[in-house]
From TrEMBL:
Record domain RNase H type-1: where: 253-382
SUPFAM superfamilies (UniProt xref): Ribonuclease H-like (SSF53098)
Official protein name in the record: RNase H type-1 domain-containing protein
PROSITE patterns, per the entry: RNASE_H_1 (PS50879)
Record Pfam families: RVT_3, zf-RVT
InterPro entries, per the entry: RNase_H-like, RNase_H-like_dom_plant, RNaseH-like_sf, RNaseH_domain, RNaseH_sf, RVT-Znf
The species this protein was found in: Linum trigynum
One MF term in the entry's GO annotations: RNA-DNA hybrid ribonuclease activity
Signal sequence, start to end: none
Length: 416
């Protein structure tokens, strides 16, 4: 995922980059695209204690250069996996998304207002739900009066204070270990995850669910997990053969654009959606779309998303594109020569689009590398049936675009 650094920027030194101990965003902005500036601002300025001159350990002479910072940003981080908490996180009996969420929590990667404020991304550092000071991870997941309200139903009174006092790591260790009868690791994890999701919906879309709705949703999801575990002990995370890998969005090669698409089907309501996003090589947003398909199978939804994604990219003037879908079967259908598939017509249309005068590669990606398209598809259920074009990202979409841009990776267990 290496990205190129403009020639004129390669010899810039720390004095020019830092103003009063903080990144000088305005200065950096003068010669780098905005999305790259955001990546840089997300990283702390390294400081050498005992000296008021910042030094930089990633070059041989200790002099900071933008080039070395850039190379650092391009590394995929492989954090220490020795703390017992990681083992707990990987074995959370819940959906992969919930484990990914805890992985972000454990790495301090959750962009709470305190974190965003520290990184000069927002003027607000407090909690927008209760109006309290300092929206930290602990506040969102536990100490906010709103979160306390949600937890109250799962706690027995005498243990309340024990629940609300430990530091974040001990708190997660304790409750992911299943020390509570009424609050097993899966329920605990699901409640935390829902609290964060709900916080985002409030911050970005100004909708706040009642505490009882979060409680109900948590119990429903927990029930489904318990049932799934009875059927398939594999999901318990035991007896698995394979390895953990960090998966994230990958920048397309220089000069290429990336199309990510996703399809989704709601089991309960017989409805289907698709979504997709087109980005240029540095991650620059070109356009997106959301479709409410009314109904249909998951493979059809995936293929409809792929067809629309190709069309949208073509219309945007893209002539070199990597298309990434997290549907293995859709990708295989496009690559195969079969004429017997029920989706033959749709596949033929996709192939016709690919065979226009441009270069297109079709690749499979994991869901963790496809979060923007995944988010877009999930919004389709609330829209009228049809195709909805997006030219300007709303705050929630910006949040997910930034998630990819800063090189966020989440762990995924790859079966072997
Ligand atoms: Zn609060």
């Amino acid at each position: 995922m290496a990205v190129g650094l403009p020639q004129e920027a390669q010899s810039i030194l720390v004095e020019e980059m830092v103003l009063n101990g903080e990144w000088n965003g305005t200065y950096i902005q003068a010669f780098l695209p905005n999305e790259i500036v955001e990546q840089i601002l997300l990283h702390d300025i390294p400081r050498d204690s005992g000296s008021d001159v910042p030094t930089w350990r990633y070059t041989e002479n200790g002099e900071f250069s933008l080039k070395s910072a850039y190379e650092l940003l391009n590394e995929v981080s492989h954090p220490s996996q020795s703390h017992p908490l990681w083992k707990k996180i990987w074995k959370i009996p819940a959906m992969q998304r919930v484990r990914s969420f805890f992985w972000l929590v454990g790495h301090g990667r959750l962009l709470t207002n305190m974190e965003r404020h520290r990184r000069h991304m927002t003027a607000v550092s407090g909690c927008q739900i209760c109006g309290g000071d300092g929206e930290s991870v602990t506040h969102v997941l536990r100490d906010c009066p709103y979160a306390r309200d949600v937890w109250s139903t799962f706690l027995e009174n005498e243990e309340d204070e024990k629940f609300f006092s430990p530091d974040m790591t001990s708190w997660m260790m304790h409750y992911l270990s299943g020390k509570r009868v009424n609050l097993d690791p899966s329920l605990f994890a699901v409640v935390c995850w829902l609290l964060w999701k709900n916080r985002n919906t409030f911050v970005f879309e100004e909708k706040l669910a009642a505490a009882s709705q979060i409680q109900g949703a948590a119990r429903r999801i927990h029930h489904q997990i318990v049932e799934a575990l009875k059927r398939d002990p594999m999901t318990r995370g035991e007896h698995m053969s394979g390895e953990w890998r960090s998966v994230g969005w990958e920048f397309p090669p220089a000069g290429w654009s990336c199309i990510n698409t996703d399809g989704s089907v709601a089991l309960s309501s017989q409805s289907a959606t698709a979504g997709g996003v087109v980005r240029h090589d540095h991650g620059r947003f070109l356009g997106a779309f959301v479709m409410n398909l009314g109904g249909g199978t998951i493979t059809r939804a995936e293929l409809m998303g792929i067809r629309q994604g190709l069309q949208r990219a073509w219309d945007l003037g893209v002539r070199k594109a990597v298309l990434r879908s997290d549907s293995k079967s859709a990708v295989e259908l496009i690559a195969s020569a079969t004429t017997s598939s029920p989706h033959f017509q749709l596949v033929s249309q996709v192939r016709r689009l690919i065979n226009q005068e441009w270069e297109v590669r079709v690749e499979h990606t994991y869901r963790e590398g496809n979060v923007v398209a995944d988010y877009l598809a999930s919004t389709g259920y609330n829209l009228p049936v049809g195709v909805h074009m997006i030219s300007v990202p709303n705050p929630m979409l910006q949040h997910w675009l930034l998630f990819d841009l800063v090189g966020s990776v989440t762990p995924r267990f790859i079966y072997q």
